[in-house]
Specification:
Blueprint: H1 6-10, E1 15-18, E2 21-22, E3 25-26, H2 28-44, E4 48-54, H3 61-66, E5 71-76, H4 85-99, E6 103-107, H5 110-123, E7 127-131, E8 133-136, E9 143-149, E10 154-158, E11 166-170, E12 187-191, E13 222-226, H6 233-245, E14 249-252, H7 254-258, E15 279-283, H8 289-292, E16 300-305, H9 311-315, E17 318-321, H10 324-337
Parallel strand pairs: 1-4, 1-6, 4-5, 5-12, 6-11, 7-11, 13-14, 13-15, 15-16, 16-17
Antiparallel strand pairs: 2-3, 8-9, 9-10
Helix pairs in contact: 4-5, 6-10
Length: 338
């Protein structure tokens, strides 16, 4: 692997965001990344580019521009109708090799985690995964990529000084999206699927929607989460009753999920979902850093715990010292009165 010279690195410019869409709808993480990219681009004096891959995606370019993109690169091809990581990676690799972005950002979603490592390897570039913070280093202009490390016990800041592009995946719900700006204009570049790309080794024969009820934690305005102190499945039934009462969603710590009391779809934290509701109620959750990184950006945090010294109690805006099985029913009774 050859280390690029300063001249090589000077050829790379602009901040790219890999837009994620499903069934013709852009995911919120795209707008969050565009908001982060605008700050990085301002520090670097460059443009924000969005990359749209898929079939029938041209119409989504305007939405990217309204949310902060200066340029949208579109690869609209029937072969990209379904997400297949090696096909998408071939298209993105070709675009990066041609246009040479300095920074490439992608959501740390299931699709992003499948796509970006393939592209990083093919480009011989570094990749920092699951970032919770991005900045530009004064003086050098290098991207500073902050993420939890050592099981979430510390926050590490990583730099890629030698190679370009600098690549990172960013956890959803940790960056702030910009409001849409009606009338904002930008450029759209339409590219073709690379002719040299090999046939994808995997084909989607059929897409089946899971009939099971989906947990939309990322969109919930009120989340009631339980931890090890809930004692078992019965404890989470109490939280589910409370959630229905206030039109909220049920979350959980990893300990509760590992114990089999609730499905993984409910897990909040470093190895689960990152959420940012209006209200986050932590019931019998001690608040280890692995959990805190997934919910600490909530607007209002309420903690219920018998231990007043638990980390979650110190983070909370309101800390209630007491038995969750006494406090929650009392709160439910009060909620029914309003």
């Amino acid at each position: 692997m050859r280390t690029p010279t300063d001249r090589d690195r000077s050829q790379y410019r602009n901040v790219w965001v890999v837009a994620e869409q499903r069934e013709g709808v852009l995911k919120d993480v795209t707008f969050e990344l565009l908001g982060a990219a605008r700050k990085l681009a301002a520090a670097r004096g460059c443009e924000v580019w969005a990359v749209l891959l898929g079939s029938g995606v041209r119409a989504m370019a305007d939405a990217c521009i309204r949310r902060g993109a200066d340029v949208v690169v579109v690869v609209d091809d029937p072969r990209l109708e379904h997400f297949v990581d090696d096909a998408y990676a071939a298209a993105l690799h070709a675009l990066v090799a041609r246009h040479k972005p300095e920074i490439v950002l992608c959501g740390a979603t299931a699709r992003g985690r499948a796509l970006i490592p393939r592209v990083a390897v093919s480009l011989e570039a570094g990749l920092t995964a699951d970032c919770t913070g991005l900045d530009i280093e004064a003086g050098t202009g290098v991207l500073l990529q902050t993420r939890p490390a050592f099981g979430g016990n510390i926050m590490a800041t990583i730099k890629c000084t030698g190679h370009r592009p600098q690549m990172a995946t960013v956890r959803p719900r940790v960056m702030s999206a910009l409001d849409a700006q009606p009338g904002r204009t930008g450029r759209v570049i339409v590219e073709s699927f690379p002719a040299a790309a090999r046939e994808a080794r995997m084909k989607v024969l059929e897409a089946v929607t899971d009939a099971k009820e989906t947990v939309h934690l990322a969109d919930a305005r009120f989340i009631i989460s339980g931890g090890r102190g809930m004692g078992g499945r019965e404890g989470f039934k109490l939280l589910a009753d409370f959630a229905r009462l206030v039109d909220g969603a049920v979350g959980a710590s990893r300990a509760a999920v590992d114990a089999g009391w609730v499905d993984y779809a409910h897990q909040v934290g470093q190895t689960g979902q990152t959420v940012q509701p209006k209200v986050y109620m932590a019931c019998a959750i001690s608040g280890q850093i692995q959990h805190l990184v997934g919910m600490q950006s909530s607007d209002l945090i309420i903690a219920i715990n018998t231990n007043p010294d638990a980390p979650m109690m110190k983070l909370a805006d309101y800390a209630i010292v007491g038995d969750v099985f006494e406090v929650v029913p009392a709160l439910m009774q009060e909620a029914r009165r309003t």
